[in-house]
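Moderator note: this is an archived Q&A kept for reference. The question asked for a predicted structure of one protein chain; the sequence and the answer are reproduced below.
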Amino acid sequence: MHEYVIEGGYPIQGVVTASGNKNAALPCLAATVLTAEPVILRNIPEIQDTGVMIQILEKLGAKVERINKNDWKIQCDNIKPCELPGELTKKVRGSIVFAGPLLARTGKCHMMPPGGDVIGRRRVDTHFLALQQLGANISVNGHFSFSANKLVGADIFLDEASVTATENAVMAASVAEGTTIIQNAASEPHVQDLCNMLNSMGAKISGVGSNILTIEGVKKLHGCEFVIGPDTIEIGSYIGMAAATHGQITIKGIRPQEMRPLKNSFAKLGISWRIDGDELTVPNTQELKVNADMGNAIPKIDDMPWPGFPADLTSIMTVVATQVEGTVLIFEKMFESRMFFVDKLISMGAKITLCDPHRAVVSGPAMLHGDHLVSPDIRAGMAMVIAAMCAHGESRISNVYQIERGYEDLVGRLQALGAHIKKVDIEE
């Protein structure tokens, strides 16, 4: 067990390269099951969640070779139908994306309910409905059992724009018989990455980037080499950290078009950046002040499906708002427990009123002081890191495993940017 020890009051300064997108890497790793040929995946982030997904692949019989730090070669030519190990699936919410490719490849998948962040009820009904329409039989009795003699294309309307349900359906439909249309599909950058990878394997998916996907089933897929795109959530986290600590950072390897949904919401807090090619720079000369809505109304930062503002950044925006002059409403619509971490920010001196499980009113700037914090999930954990970096004095953050599930080499990268942070054994 480890903790982060952080001494606040030191602005970050320097250059960092965006890691590969965690939420793209997980389904892309699962998609390697769809072919017996070798697949090379590049820019896989070195984080806890991808490590667990690779362990699951090995348990299924895949040959896994690490080419270098972020590149992997995977060949699933001898996949063994078996129950996915519960001790692994409970660690990663994304483990459920093995259901679609295993159904397509072996005709069955058995697994315990997936784990991951505890941020409220996280439905899996949409996965079941989509796969059932493709021909799967599903039973739930303490664990999930999927089976199918044959998958057949269908006209599917998802009851919610679920990212992982879209991914499961797309992977299964890629080798189903006939044509599948998925309406109300998720269109996030990581879903687009998966679709582009599948197309490079020989799939026929059109409408990528929209909420209507058309998949012409093919008999089999082949190997490929694919590069995972940058992690938009990590980039947004570093933008927020730079602004909140009054620092300056240049982030390399971004996709400019993926920054557009973030721009308007950050602008409400007086935060801007400049983009030059694939580099984004947050300057340290900007005024952190809430920009009121028309009529001097309190502005709202709310999340929604892509291309709306990402739900995974609402925790980050909450802590950044504590360092900005003015008042803003943070409205997290998706998960009823994600905002409960704000009681820790309040204990540090933040001026936050939690209206209900989904809404918090934040007024700033607030002088934060160091505290002992416990990370409840990946994004709230990162928000706590930012709060500790803004605070006066020392903070300790426990349960850092949760943070490291989503952020590659966080301590090393922050130290290189001038943050006073170290990772210690909890006994210290």
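Archived answer notes: The first helix runs from residue 22 to 31.
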